[in-house]
Design brief:
Elements (H helix, E strand, L loop, with lengths): L3 H6 L2 H7 L7 E5 L2 E5 L15 H9 L6 H4 L17 H35 L5 H28 L3 H6 L4 H5 L1
Keywords: Coiled coil, Membrane
Pfam families: Syntaxin (PF00804)
GO biological process, one term: vesicle-mediated transport
Length: 175
């Protein structure tokens, strides 16, 4: 036999109330304006709902001296991972590493393009000036990307004092 708690847990109404459908939107009233709020992501806990206006009036009518703060609606801000402007130092470090890797991929593509153009120019008996100019532009772009990568790598390199100070720090050793 099922206990009373487990029977209540299997109740479809209780399940729908606790776990709303993901594609539904929930209307929220904040300061007399209507706002559409998206449902909570999976695994997120739902905050307790504020008391509705009729219940608050009913409490006041019965002489309940509860503070006005209880009658105000509560608003919660849900921040999804990766959307914050400033994250932890590890997140910033990994973002910089991703940027460096993307720049290295660009550099590799430019080098391959340079090799193709060099082969084309060497195979041509009398190369045109435009081909030579394109080749020179590619070389300049490669030099600029190399400088950017070097500066980005120096930016993530730990400073000497910081390295001495936090020698046993996991983050420093990981970098």
């Amino acid at each position: 036999m099922l206990s009373r708690q487990s029977a209540h847990a299997l109740d479809p109404k209780a399940i729908k109330a606790r776990f709303p459908l993901e594609d539904a939107t929930v209307p929220v009233t904040v300061a007399s304006s209507r706002v559409q709020a998206s449902p909570l992501p999976l695994g997120a806990q739902q905050l307790p709902t504020p008391p509705s206006q009729p219940r608050a009036r009913k409490r006041r009518d019965h002489g309940d001296d509860s503070s006005d703060e209880e009658d105000k609606e509560r608003v919660a801000l849900v921040v999804h991972p990766g959307t914050a402007r400033l994250g932890s130092p590890d997140e910033e470090f990994f973002h910089k590493v991703r940027t460096i890797r993307q720049t290295i991929v660009k550099l590799g593509n430019k080098v391959q393009e340079l090799e193709k153009q060099q082969v084309t120019i060497l195979a041509t008996p009398l190369p045109e000036e435009s081909m030579k100019q394109e080749l020179q532009n590619l070389r300049d772009e490669i030099k600029q990307l190399g400088r950017e990568i070097r500066l980005q790598l120096k930016a993530i390199e730990p400073q000497k004092e910081e390295a001495d100070e936090n020698y046993n720090s996991v983050n420093t050793r990981m970098r």
